[in-house]
Amino acid sequence: MKAVAIMVGMCLVFVFVWERVDMVRLGYSIERLKTQKTLLERERDQLQVKVSALTAPERIAKVATDKLGLFPPQQGQIFIVHPQPDRPLIARPPAELRIARTMTTVGGAK
Questions:
Q1: Which residues are CB-contacts of 89 (< 8 A; sequence separation ≥ 6)?
Q2: Number of H helices, E strands in the chain
Q3: What is the pLDDT of residue 9?
């Protein structure tokens, strides 16, 4: 009987020590995750600043003109289409569809 009591006591001590060691391990894990969270939040903030800088309209216009050779439309190149209230927005396509293309060559002929 005395041996059983000693074994139960030893098991309780082992459980107590295991719980304490596990609590310390979890504490270190929590601190590591908090540090990682802080680093990820900083990285997110830096990326948001970078996205804001890259999507600035002034930068996009500069890249479009300098690198891509795009320019703002000239007078007469913009057509605004207003839907007519008495006609449905979705209509059947015409029987024949023609696409107009303008191709310029080096000599300037079309």
A1: 83
A2: 2, 0
A3: 92
